[in-house]
Amino acid sequence: MAASWCTISSPSTSEGVSLTAAKERGQLVFLEGLKSCLDLLFGEEEKQSGQPSPLQFISESTSDLKALFDFVRTSLTPAGSDSWKGPVLLVDDLSVLLSLGATPVAVLDFIHYCRVTVCYQLKGNIVVLVHSNEDSEDEENELIVNSLCHHSDLILWVEGLATGFCKDVHGQIKIIKRVSLELTAEQDLVQIYQYKIQDKNVTFFARGLSAAVL
After folding, report:
1. In 3-state terms, what secondary structure has residue 137?
2. What is the CA radius of gyration of the chain?
3. Cβ-based burial of 102 (10 A; exposed 0-12, middle 13-18, buried ≥19)
4. Which helix (H) or strand (E) holds 152?
5. What angle do CA 147, 150, 151 make, to 5 degrees?
6. Phi-psi region of 87 (alpha: psi -120 to 50; beta: other; left: phi over 0)
7. How far apart are CA 117 and CA 129, in angstroms?
8. What does residue 45 show for φ and ψ, rounded to 5 degrees?
9. Per-residue confidence at 130, pLDDT binned at 50, 70, 90?
10. Cα–Cα dist 189/210, whole Å
11. Would you call 82 helix, strand, or coil by DSSP?
């Protein structure tokens, strides 16, 4: 929701993936959140589609995200003979809803209903981006982050280096597989890698094994 269609589609084309073609085939449904907000504020969205905006809560007194959930459910539910095999819902990023005025409870309810529909009914997956840091004073955002971590099967925690800037290592990613969700007596599996962002890809390597060190 935080990015435009051009920002999303252009990098994918350079990597040999055409999101435009996927969109034309009905394999991809994209909600351009910022554009939808502007169209809603200026009354253009309903004129164009004749339907309520998924972000209708912005212009209402309550932060009810039902319209947004209905958009997700309608977009991912197969119509007629179409068959969706393992649909994926990508939310980039969830923190935007808080910035637009939605309450943490409304955001968590939205994710809960999406999880029931996508993960359990349609046998798909949900990938959500949120931002967080240890020194954050945004209690509402941290509530969202902690709740998502609690219910997630897999967590990818990306952060900069504690030692500061480095030309050959741009940060590290912690991969947490939530084994404890299924086996309460087991500990979560944690793997930590470092990475370097390049022009058209990202290189991952074990800590201390960057090209500069080797």
Report:
1. coil
2. 19
3. buried
4. none
5. 90
6. beta
7. 19
8. -65, -50
9. very high
10. 23
11. coil
